[in-house]
Amino acid sequence: MDFYLKEQGVCTSFPYGQLNISGNEDYGFRPYQLMVASIAGCSASVFRKILEKQKLNVEEWHISAEVERNPEEANRIDRIHLRYIVKGKQLDRAKLEKNLAISRKNCSMIRSVENSIDIEESLDYIDLD
User: Fold this and answer.
1) Residues 32-90: pLDDT tens digits?
2) What is the CA radius of gyration of the chain?
């Protein structure tokens, strides 16, 4: 990946578009937003793959991320709580929780920061039967 310095931040390009990064939200994504998005995106993608392999019928997903930052440590991310809400038919809570734990072990982004950022996950589900 190549990055280019711009007046208001940094940018990089991919086949699907340009990514602007800036400490000012008026000019691009803030670095901490990208960090949280990569962790949530990786976790959700791995979790979905596992559920699809098991043919679990999840019809709707929502993941919210609650972030705690430490202003005394350069505003570093101390904690991220990922809250999953899944809706589907014939969902089994124990299976969902087991698969979420498996996805955590296979998410490269969580594994990359697990010794520096406290990442918690919780799961709510709505059975549509």
Assistant:
1) 999 999 999 999 999 999 999 988 888 899 999 999 999 999 999 999 999 999 999 88
2) 17
Instruction: Transcribe the chain into DSSP letters.
Output: ---EEETTEEEEEETTEEEEE-SSTTTSB-HHHHHHHHHHHHHHHHHHHHHHHTT-EEEEEEEEEEEEEEGGGTTEEEEEEEEEEEEEES--HHHHHHHHHHHHHT-HHHHHHTTTSEEEEEEEEEE--
Strands 17-21 and 4-6: unpaired
The whole-angstrom separation of Cα 123 and Cα 101 is: 11
CB 43 within 8 A of CB 107: yes
The one-letter code for the residue type at 57 is N
Instruction: Give the CA count within 13 Å in the CB-facing half-sphere of 50.
Output: 19
Whole-model pTM over 0.85: yes
Nearest CA to 109 out of 37, 31, 3 is that of 37
CB 84 within 8 A of CB 122: yes
